[in-house]
């Protein structure tokens, strides 16, 4: 059994993004399909956003936050620089 589960509609581009992050990090995951704005969906996220990450009893949404959580919560190669300058340059593509 995987440590994390993604809850979402199958055709969500945001779901694909976080699945790729988990794949790159080597984190196995389960997928639980949700019908948009169903009672099950709204119980996990009252504003109806997808995807939703479940890691134990921790529920998280917003793709950038999910990607960051996967990168920091699991062993394996870092997907982002760990230093402030490296992160800023990655995000802003600063001219150095």
Notes on the protein architecture:
The protein has four helices and four strands. It is of the alpha+beta class. The chain is 41% helix and 19% strand. The longest helix has 13 residues. Strands 2-1-3-4 form a four-stranded mixed beta sheet, covered by helices on one side.
Summarize the structure.
Helix content is 41%, strand content 19%. By secondary structure, it is of the alpha+beta class.
Sequence of secondary-structure elements: EHEHEEHH
Sheet with the most strands: spatial strand order: 2-1-3-4
| Sheet/helix structural class | alpha+beta
Q: Compute the number of helices.
A: 4
Could you name the key traits of this structure?
single chain; 96 residues; alpha+beta; 4-stranded mixed beta sheet; 19% strand
Secondary structure elements and pairings:
Elements: E1 4-8, H1 13-25, E2 29-33, H2 39-44, E3 52-55, E4 58-61, H3 63-73, H4 84-92
Parallel strand pairs: 1-2
Antiparallel strand pairs: 1-3, 3-4
Helix pairs in contact: 1-3
């Amino acid at each position: 059994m995987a440590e994390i589960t993604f809850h979402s509609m199958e055709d969500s581009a945001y779901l694909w993004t976080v699945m790729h992050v988990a794949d790159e990090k080597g984190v196995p995951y389960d997928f639980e399909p949700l019908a948009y704005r169903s009672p099950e969906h709204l119980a996990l996220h009252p504003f109806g956003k997808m995807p939703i990450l479940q890691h134990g009893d921790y529920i998280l949404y917003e793709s950038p936050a999910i990607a960051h959580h996967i990168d920091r919560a699991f062993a394996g190669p870092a997907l982002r620089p760990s230093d402030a300058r490296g992160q800023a340059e990655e995000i802003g593509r600063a001219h150095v």
